[in-house]
Amino acid sequence: MSTRARRGMLAAATLVLLVALGVLTLVLLDGPAGATGPAGAARAAAPANWAALLGAAIAVAGSSIGAGLAVAYTGAAALAAMSERPELFGRAIVIVGLAEGIAIYGLVVAVILMERA
Questions:
Q1: Which class is 3-116 in CATH?
Q2: What average pLDDT does the segment 1-19 reach?
Q3: What integer is the mean pLDDT of 65-78?
């Protein structure tokens, strides 16, 4: 993968992260402008624990981006190694699976933070 493609993917991921954080902030602060009635009253009465939800969103976004980059590098290396020595298939799958575990750690952290919200 070229440097230009990596920069483009990183810029796109950053843009998605910023949009997701903006939407999350909008929803957590007050919701849509016309949100009134029983739901608005219940939201006003409940304490807003927006920091835990924001932390969960950042944990999932960051770990997903990190896992994507890790799988990209390890997957390419695994394919190159398997093209020369096919018996490395099992080891290569384990290494790619370990890289995928980064995203699972982010999800676990998000679930723990969501329980506190």
A1: mainly alpha
A2: 77
A3: 91
